Amino acid sequence: MKIATAAYPLSFFDSWAAYEDKIFQWVDDAASHDADLLVFPEYAAMELATLAGDAVARDLEQSLHAVSERMADANALHAHLAREFGVHILSGSAPVFDGGERPVNRAHLFTPDGKSDFQDKQIMTRFERDPWNVASGGPLKIFETALGKIGVLICYDSEFPLLGRALADCDVILSPSCTEALSGYWRVRIGAMARALENQCVTAMASLVGTADWSEAVDVTTGMGALFGPPDVGFPDTGVISEGKMCVPGWTYGDVDLPAIANVRADGRVLNRTHWDEQIPRHQEVTYSPLT
Q1: DSSP the chain
Q2: 220 and 180 Cβ atoms separated by less than 8 Å
Q3: CB of 225 within 8 A of CB of 243?
Q4: Radius of gyration of the chain from Cα atoms?
Q5: Per residue in 84-137, pLDDT tens?
Q6: CA distances in angstroms from 276 to 133, 199, 241, 285, listed in the order given
Q7: Predicted local confidence at residue 59, as pLDDT
Q8: pLDDT digits (tens, 9 = 90+) for 39-97
Q9: Which residues contact 203 (CB under 8 A, 6 or more apart)?
Q10: Domains identified in the chain and CATH numbers
Q11: Residue pair 264/233 in contact by the 8 Å Cβ criterion
């Protein structure tokens, strides 16, 4: 399959039609390059708050509600485009009020045959805890698709190896991200690369990029699109399948060979995924040894 990962800038919209046009153009562009799976970043849906006006977009709490209220329409749009272009789409994640007092951070996956599901973020960053007060959502899922088994670790979740291990059966793990500083981008990137190493799979990172001075939530973001694999047989020695240019909007493309994933898991130079359980007795037997 060919994966397209986005370096995606936010826009200020004066109409729903303008949002539709933007998403259509992005999907059309990726599909014209024969992409099978499109990955949009974390909190890319925050631009929907602008449809409620400048004052709402600038107010953190109001913007969370405004985005959540637009998600049914946004989901319908992405589902339509997935069918029209014959692609799988992970849409930009959004704060969603789903029966609780506080929103979850949710990304939806759409397939060409009209199916859809979602993945909620598991562990919140400091700013999501305060002042956003975003809640942890439902459990991790492994999506069985025509492209293979796909998992999603939203941004900070990529930095936790046990969450990655829960998705060890996945061929591809998607890491949509939203990071303010270059250091934040590299934390998520290092996490995504580590998950590719441990699980001997492919990880795909998408990033929010640029400035949105109308938003208290996502005013400055840094990153780029990239795809990673294990630095082993069948993959680049660096583990970097492809990467974009820092903070330059657009798609980054990379080809993923499922037989190569199966082969490196069965007969790689190292077998991290197979040998994972050998850590367990070792880390439980740590002792302190004062030097004399």
Answers
A1: -EEEEEEEE----SSHHHHHHHHHHHHHHHHHTT-SEEEPPTTGGGGGGGGG-HHHHHSHHHHHHHHHHHHHHHHHHHHHHHHHHT-EEEPPPEEE-SSSSS-EEEEEEE-TTS-EEEEE--S--HHIIIII-PBP-S----EEETTEEEEE--GGGGG-HHHHHHTTT-SEEEEEE--SSHHHHHHHHHHHHHHHHHHTSEEEEEEEEEE-TT-SSSSEE----EEE--SSTTS-TTSEEEE--TT--EEEEEE--HHHHHHHHHH-SS-HHHHGGGHHHHHHT-------
A2: yes
A3: yes
A4: 19
A5: 999 999 999 999 999 989 999 999 999 999 999 999 999 999 999 999 999 999
A6: 35, 9, 24, 16
A7: 97
A8: 999 999 999 999 999 999 999 999 999 999 999 999 999 999 999 999 999 999 999 99
A9: 158, 172, 173, 174, 175, 192, 193, 195, 196, 227, 228, 229
A10: 2-284 (3.60.110.10)
A11: yes
Q: Cα torsion for 145, 147, 152, 158, to the nearest 10°?
A: 150
